[in-house]
């Protein structure tokens, strides 16, 4: 008799995600001890030897709850039982900038990046599921930040791979149960102070109730389509940026207005964002409102003054050229 269907689904997802990894490479999986990451760790432990790969595990102790160190040690014990090695606890200190969720995420990824570099890992697997993707799309929709935000999480992003994005959370829970694994239920997953928890516990259930089942699947499908569109527009914008750029040196970037005027708004605004970042504006602080203000120097030119941008930059139009530089522009 073969494995339980849920176990088979998770293993197949991991097998597909590792198909292009060279022999003997090290694959790490991030594991909190929850159902998603625990099912992923078990699947990696099963699949890696069969693909001639080495497999290890990382668990991050955010030090945000009593007993977090003990829970991290429990995860490491499970990793050893699964023959996942190396198995490490990454202890981090979470700041406050950007709110608790963003600060914890930043600290977690910084620790994972450091460990992956140190251990020379070919990839790091993350246990995000289709339900996580649906929540991410809804959060992006609420922010109103465009198709890139609606595209959710990528199945692959640099060293990170998310094999379970097409599987529902019920599959990982069933896979753990079938293998005798007891997931840890993080109390933070019930804490309604966190926006994502409110989406998970309140918003998605209401949508399912009012619109019928399949909302999470539809949102995940929307994310995949939005990602294809956003990728295509980004590629177009990359090419257009090269065509428009008169200079891209140091702290000054200049673009030809006549070339910018030929572009559709979605592409042109991407070019403007790239130019601002290339000139030194922090990407995290550069909002859609900033980009739209710069765009009006092209679409509604009335001889207006420079537009101030994050990072001490200004964008100004002069003699058919749009210039991004540190303020003041001489």
UniProtKB/TrEMBL annotation:
Coiled coil: none
InterPro entries named in the record: Rossmann-like_a/b/a_fold, TilS/TtcA_N, tRNA_Ile_lys_synt, tRNA_Ile_lys_synt_N, tRNA_Ile_lys_synt_subst-bd
EC numbers for this chain: 6.3.4.19
Classification via Gene3D superfamilies: 1.20.59.20, HUPs
Domain tRNA(Ile)-lysidine/2-thiocytidine synthase N-terminal: 27-201
Protein location: Cytoplasm
Keyword Ligase: yes
Residues annotated as binding ATP: 32-37
Domain tRNA(Ile)-lysidine synthase substrate-binding residues, every copy: 255-322
Catalytic activity: cytidine(34) in tRNA(Ile2) + L-lysine + ATP = lysidine(34) in tRNA(Ile2) + AMP + diphosphate + H(+)
Keyword annotations of the record: ATP-binding, Cytoplasm, Ligase, Nucleotide-binding, tRNA processing
Stated role: Ligates lysine onto the cytidine present at position 34 of the AUA codon-specific tRNA(Ile) that contains the anticodon CAU, in an ATP-dependent manner. Cytidine is converted to lysidine, thus changing the amino acid specificity of the tRNA from methionine to isoleucine.
Family stated for the protein in its record: Belongs to the tRNA(Ile)-lysidine synthase family.
Domains as described in the record: The N-terminal region contains the highly conserved SGGXDS motif, predicted to be a P-loop motif involved in ATP binding.
HAMAP family found in the cross-reference section: tRNA_Ile_lys_synt
Protein name stated in the entry: tRNA(Ile)-lysidine synthase
